[in-house]
Amino acid sequence: MRIQKIHIENFGKLHDFDMELQDGLNTVRADNGWGKSTLAAFIKAMFYGLDYTTKRSLKENERKRYMPWQGGLFGGSLEFRTGKKAYRVERSFGAKDKEDTFALYDLSTGLESGDYPKCLGEELFHLDKAAFERSGFFAQHDVAAGINDSLNAALTHVEEDAADMQNYERAAASLENRMKYYRKLGNRGQIGKLEEELRGIRETLQDCRNQEKAARDWKERIASGEQKEQELLADIRTLEAQIKNAQEYGEKSAKKAQHDLLKGQALEKEEQLRQAAAALGEYTSAPAGEKELDRCREMIYQTDTLRVQEEAAKAEVRQAEEHMKMLEAEIEEQPGLHMGICILAGFLAAAGALAVFLRWFVPGVLLLTAGALAAFLEIRRRHQVQAQVKVLEEELASASQELQDAEDIYDTFLEKRERLESRICRFLHVPGGTDAQKLESCWKLERQRSQEYGMRKQAYEASRREAQRSREAWLQFRQGFSEEELTAFLNLQEPEEEVSEAQWKLERKRKLREELLKEQRDLHNQMKALEEKAEQIPELEEEEERTAGELEAAVKEHGLLEKTLKYLKAAREQFSVRYLKELQQGLLYYLKLLEPDYGQEPSMDVKLKLKIREAGASRDLDYFSAGWQDLFQIAERLSVVDALYKNEQPVLILDDPFVNLDTAKYKRAMELLEALSEKRQMIYFTCRT
């Protein structure tokens, strides 16, 4: 088989990656972190897919570990040749396996091929994924071979029986699980459970038999207690008859005491009622109530407000009167017509006219102009005075109206105040015209009188109700008895004899009887429990027999399972011996090539576990250094590959398995790879130069 070409769309850190491979050894050298292990894992995933798991660890969850770093399609393609045909396998992966896709194409036709199913690696290599990882896939730091049923079947070349060989582990696991069902560490299996159950049944059965014997003893004690209880009951009835008369005296005495108490309370409450009525009768008329007093107080407050408003209105009247007087004085002070100026103007006009007449035109015109100017100035002054007088007259009319309005407001406030004061005086029964301070004092006295009247009225009503209740209680008590009964307990005489001794004896007998009855109840309950235990004996005997039979059958079946597993393991080991000799020879062959000077001969068992004889004893690989461990395991792994494939050789994928080898061993390992690459294709990933 040969891999020809690889294309990675997205896989881990690798993106849009292409690689062509040649026959023989293909060495991929790159620094740590380049993605060599990712590329090796991609090749394996193209043949076997990616397992789905819910584990969070990236080491255990390859699907999660190789999810593309940069996003995009998760997967790629791989072209390979096997036999005479060439194919291209394409896979894409999702978050879950149900999202994965698979396609196989025949490169000669370009059509999709059905030659191999989705489990491509198992068909090509005749190995499951776990066996492939322990044979042709050399993972870094993990080159141990190991064995499973798939690898075992391939090594013995009985692929036709591979299904039966692969069922071995399931059969062995099933037998071991079944044996664990019967026996577990700490005696926790079914056999231990049955043994514990049988011990419990036998202990319970023995306890029930002991309880059955104890129940007979309890019956005798119960019979003796019943006889004592009858004797105590007879004594109690005798004592009850003796103190019956004393109980009747006590009842009548209590009734008389209650009658006297109710009568005294009724008389006391009637006396309190008379006193409350006398106190209330001191008032010839009922004072005003709280609401009327509150309204009166509100009216007093209103009069105060009106008085303030009245004074303010009165001040406005005075102010308006003064304003009118001032305006009238200003009007009277305005000047009249100036006679001197008028005479001067007339004289100048006459003189001017005479001059003109005498043909003295210039002096005449000047005199006429001066006379006209004097007349004009006088007329203008007169008009100004008249205008000012008119303004003052308008202001006087306005002031007169304001005075009238102020007088109306004043009269309104005065009328309201006088009307309210009249109502207050009538309410408080004081003469009209009483001043505000006196009205306030009278209101306070009236309020105090009203409060005292209310308190006395409340006291009277409370006394009346209490007196009525007390009298009704007394009369109701008397109505419960006939005249003879009333006479009997009202004239009751105290008996001469004391009954305290009889009462003490009665209480003592009753207490003894209660204790005895309680003891009897406890005995009955205990006997009932004992009898219930005894009733379980037949059922427990049957259960004991059944459990003993189940235990015997379980022990027998466990023995058969143990023998079957022993024979199955022996048969598998005999079957595996077929390939052991060939593997042992291959191991020695490759070990000599890798380390010619090594003189010891490692031994290998059927599980491919190596032991190295050193210092006179066979030792596990863990006793050796990492380099020697890798050396032994690489030799073993190569011998396994040789044993698996006799004809067509598979591709070997080596993810830097020589990382722990020193320089000399690494050189010989590379020489070995060169020699092996002549027969098969190999892909070797390393960071060494």
Q: Could you walk me through the main structural features you see in this protein, from its secondary elements to its overall organization?
A:
This protein is of the alpha/beta class. Strands 2-1-4-5-6 form a 5-stranded antiparallel β-sheet, with helices on one face. Strands 3-12-11-7 form a 4-stranded parallel β-sheet, sandwiched between helices. A 3-stranded antiparallel β-sheet has the order 8-9-10. Mean pLDDT is 78; it is low at 158-165. A hairpin with a 2-residue loop joins β1 and β2. The chain contains 17 helices and 12 strands.
What's the quick description here?
By secondary structure, the protein is an alpha/beta fold.
**Low-pLDDT residue intervals, each spanning 5 or more residues:** 158-165
Radius of gyration: 68 Å
Mean pLDDT: 78
How does the overall form come out from the CA principal axes? flat
- Helical content stands at 55-70%
What does the oligomeric state look like here?
single chain
**Number of helical regions:** 17
Q: What attributes does this structure have?
A:
4-stranded parallel beta sheet, 689 residues, alpha/beta, 10% strand, 66% helix, 17 helices, flat
Topology record:
Layout: E1 2-11, E2 14-20, E3 25-29, H1 36-48, H2 62-65, E4 75-82, E5 85-92, E6 101-106, H3 120-125, H4 129-133, E7 137-138, H5 149-155, H6 162-182, H7 190-242, H8 244-281, H9 290-332, H10 339-357, H11 361-428, H12 436-479, H13 483-490, H14 500-535, H15 537-594, E8 603-604, E9 610-614, E10 617-620, H16 626-644, E11 652-655, H17 663-676, E12 682-686
Helix pairs in contact: 5-6, 6-15, 7-14, 7-15, 8-12, 8-13, 9-11, 9-12, 10-11, 15-16
